[in-house]
Amino acid sequence: MEWTREKRYRRLDEASPEEMQQLGRQVDACPWRQTFHIQPRTGLLNDPNGFSYYNGYYHLFYQWFPLGPVHGLKYWYHMKSKDLVNWEDAGIGIEPDRYYDRHGAYSGSAIEYEDKLFLFYTGNTRDENWIRHPYQCLAVMDKTGCIKKLEEAVISTVPSGYTDHFRDPKIWKQGELFYAVIGAQRENETGCIVVYGSSNLTDWEFEGELETKLENFGYMWECPDYFEMDGQGVLIFSPQGLQPLGDEYQNIYQSGYLMGGSINLPDRNFDHGDFRELDRGFDFYAPQTMASPDGRRILVGWMGLPEIDYPTDKNGWAHCLTLPRELSAKNGRLVQKPVKELELLRKQESTAKVVLDNELQRIDGFTGTNYELLCEVSDFSADEFGIEFRACGGFKTVIKYDAVEKKVTLDRSDSGAEVGVEYGTTRSCNLNADKVVFHMFVDTSSVEIFLNEGEEVFTSRIFPDAGCDQIHFYAKNGRAAFNAKKWEL
Ligand code: FRU
């Protein structure tokens, strides 16, 4: 089917129950439905939105186009959870039904204020010439879960000097005031972030641009997020338009962070270090963070990227969210660990211990398609060692450590159905270590690999056959001792 503009901008209530059932059946027939990740019932999921804790629940919304695996008229879909692991379906959160969001309720964030949860998002609109006019809008959720929109948008114009690529407000509170960062594009087509301030969340004032050292760094910065951690300021954003550079910037678009001194608002100068990518895998974009009630900074990302076809498209759905990760700061960098609540998912446990000398070994009974694997390799002389997983016949996904080059590589060349091959089939990063710990979460069609306590993370979709469940360990040119534990999830 050709996704014409008309089809992309159809509302969910224009689809008949039969059409939705039919689409649902198509989705159910997909061999790549996930088992412990948030995924859309039908259609396309993208950015996490409104990630927050309110009234005893974590709330996590996502960008959703219900009618097919394409970007179209976006809704916010609402999930809630007591523990970040077991999510309840709370239905549609925000529908695009007002003058200010009629072409999509785009990304945004949430903050609690006066006992309510304020959802601040971008209303996407297009005029008769299909020119974009973004609004920044407010919807308010009360303790019963009822979400009401304001009659008017709270920011209706783009300040001069910026184009209509102006979206994705992320709010935080500093002292008595609220601030929002918004992703923007300057008129000279470079990306940046602007800051707004408010005392009541309804009246907003343009403060100006956030001053970074990255004057010319891509053409648009999406989904900004600012928070402070251990007295340092962290600015996360997703720049578009960076060229590949060595192992960096290999995906169509990037997501990363700047870390430095805290921003001293209303002074908007940010003194920071280098831009670093948050994730080294193939499918990661537009992450958002929140502060948990016990003070942790938790991040969730979109496990997907725009403008790439995925093998699930033909089954009428696309994408999922990542698992929640706890962030911390170490030596001027962010470290990401799977939140400890994920242990709640652990079922049957098994172990495997092998010392390999220039060989590949499959351990009997040590298999799976949906599991957590924690594997430590501490004693090695091999030039290279690694793990092949979701393997069968000629298929496998490989995570390996090159001890000569001191590099980790994820290889999905032979994973199964192809995805995004025009952007390459391997991803690598440096890791200088005399012990390598692979902590992996494998779902039906994804893998998230945390290396050495979250120093680096590789997040990727993979599309193997259901029967590909083997796990192999190998060492090349020398020895490596593997000590692994696995839990069915
Ligand atoms: C990022 C993004 C945001 C926008 C949303 C629309 O993936 O392009 O900038 O608000 O998706 O779905």
TrEMBL record:
One of its GO terms (biological process) is sucrose metabolic process. Keywords: Carbohydrate metabolism, Cytoplasm, Glycosidase, Hydrolase. It catalyses: Hydrolysis of terminal non-reducing beta-D-fructofuranoside residues in beta-D-fructofuranosides. Its main location: cytoplasm. One of its GO terms (molecular function) is beta-fructofuranosidase activity. It is found in: Cytoplasm. Pathway: Glycan biosynthesis; sucrose metabolism. It is an enzyme of class 3 (hydrolase). Belongs to the glycosyl hydrolase 32 family. PANTHER family: BETA-FRUCTOSIDASE. This is Sucrose-6-phosphate hydrolase. It comes from Peribacillus glennii.
